[in-house]
Amino acid sequence: MRPTIFLHFLVGILVSLSAFCIINAEDPYLYYTWTVTYGLVSPLGIPQKGILINGQFPGPTIEAVTNDNIIVNVINKLDEPFLITWNGIKQRKTTWQDGVLGTNCPIPPNTNWTYKFQAKDQIGTFNYFPSTKLHRAVGGFGGFNIAQRSVIAVPYPIPAGEFTLLVSDWYKNSHKVLQQTLDSGKTLPLPDGLLINGHHKSAIFTGEKGKTYKFRVSNVGIATSINFRIQGHTMTLVEVEGAHTLQEVYESLDVHPGQSVAVLVTLHGSLKDYFIIASSRFTKPILATTGYLRYAGSNTPASGPLPIGPTYHIHWSMKQARTIRLNLTANAARPNPQGSFHYGTIPIVRRLVLANTAAKIGGKLRYAVNKISYVDPETPLKLADWLNIPGVFNLGTIKDTPTPGPAVFGASVVGTTLHDFVEIVFQNTEPTLQSWHLDGYSFYVVGYGSGNWTPDMRRRYNLVDAVSRHTVQVYPTGWSAVLVSLDNKGMWNLRSAIWSRRYLGQQLYVRVWNNEHSLFTETDMPLNALLCGKAKH
């Protein structure tokens, strides 16, 4: 074979191999078919109607790896429209898959809809739950864990195993009765109890003596902050909602509504069972539930007094929150260190001060943000924006700062530009704890404080190693401040994680936009998108 012919032959082989590698380099796909039904559950000993996924309560846990593609076909067998949202999954470029009424038409009864999204550049402990009405109060929730790719190191020894713990509050009343209570203008009563993985006092987690295990703990309740602890064992915090943290050791941890943590626990005790405790924070009376950490081979039941946890103690909780900080030298989903993004040096281009208030509108209780009590339009905001449908929302409805005057109904949308760097201050004007969540993003929690926020408070911000997370607590009559880089185009729900407050208006949307139509920043409307309201015509 002549040299030139051989060279062309070799180049052809290399091109073919390159094409083969590109074709086969697509990230893996995980396929699920979930049938959502009612079913009898008895977590507090009384049979009641719960929401099951494939007959399971809680629903199945999704175990993914960074960049996996997730395909979930949801079949709605309930008697009401239904959606699932993916709490903490950033939906990079796919706001269409977020599963809230501002982005999606709900799935009608006896029909199905398929979610298609990617766990793009994420690791960590997350969850999913119904976003429609009060459905999540009676089930439909589950864990969503994203592991590192094998080529990415983790900043701690690989544990011997993992446990997913979903802590929730629970009512003996049905979700429809709870909804009727809110619709009548009344507040919900204190929940009737707490659960761990759908059980009140019977969840068991078994490990071998001398080994270390990762506990992924999520608060999937609709109202109640919890304190989590394990009898006779300390916990090393390693991750919060997708961010690796400094590895501080705790005897107990507060986890507020919508939040998730991951801790390492070494089984160094005697061969027996130990209590796992979740108790309520800031409630009277205190609610509590127990599970069990069982050493393999144990024949000795858990005994002795339960370890005491904090009850009200607001200052204790705030001090602990300030100890949760970012591990700057560790990586997360990518190989570059988390500290390589110097958020504290980036100029702020927009400041929002969002004050929550309880109000009466038409004689009934509502919750408002900067005087606007949110009401979902019949047409999802994202569909109206994409299809240029007028009369659905107005970017001037909500103001950047609180103003005096009575609360009114509205569809609040804050308009921002892609890549804006924004400061958000959550001002709590009420004597109860608030919990705020932002879809599509993680933000840096740079400060907590008591009383009213003022610009002078910025001198107290942590501009070096603040933790990055998607849900932040705001202490009674206090404030919390976050910084966020708006690099994910779409329409994103900023909401109270306390579900009765969200249902009655404590939410809004952040429109992150530019005038460039590019698949590099946002996917087109999916072909299977459901149409409703004005979009239907």
Automatic annotation (TrEMBL):
<comment type="similarity">
    <text>Belongs to the multicopper oxidase family.</text>
</comment>
<dbReference type="InterPro" id="IPR011706">
    <property type="entry name" value="Cu-oxidase_C"/>
</dbReference>
<dbReference type="Pfam" id="PF00394">
    <property type="entry name" value="Cu-oxidase"/>
</dbReference>
<dbReference type="Pfam" id="PF07731">
    <property type="entry name" value="Cu-oxidase_2"/>
</dbReference>
<dbReference type="InterPro" id="IPR008972">
    <property type="entry name" value="Cupredoxin"/>
</dbReference>
<dbReference type="InterPro" id="IPR011707">
    <property type="entry name" value="Cu-oxidase-like_N"/>
</dbReference>
<dbReference type="Pfam" id="PF07732">
    <property type="entry name" value="Cu-oxidase_3"/>
</dbReference>
<feature type="domain" description="Plastocyanin-like">
    <location>
        <begin position="379"/>
        <end position="516"/>
    </location>
</feature>
<feature type="domain" description="Plastocyanin-like">
    <location>
        <begin position="162"/>
        <end position="297"/>
    </location>
</feature>
<dbReference type="InterPro" id="IPR034273">
    <property type="entry name" value="CuRO_1_AAO-like"/>
</dbReference>
<feature type="domain" description="Plastocyanin-like">
    <location>
        <begin position="36"/>
        <end position="149"/>
    </location>
</feature>
<keyword id="KW-0325">Glycoprotein</keyword>
<feature type="signal peptide">
    <location>
        <begin position="1"/>
        <end position="25"/>
    </location>
</feature>
<protein>
    <submittedName>
        <fullName>L-ascorbate oxidase homolog</fullName>
    </submittedName>
</protein>
<keyword id="KW-0732">Signal</keyword>
<dbReference type="InterPro" id="IPR045087">
    <property type="entry name" value="Cu-oxidase_fam"/>
</dbReference>
<dbReference type="InterPro" id="IPR001117">
    <property type="entry name" value="Cu-oxidase_2nd"/>
</dbReference>
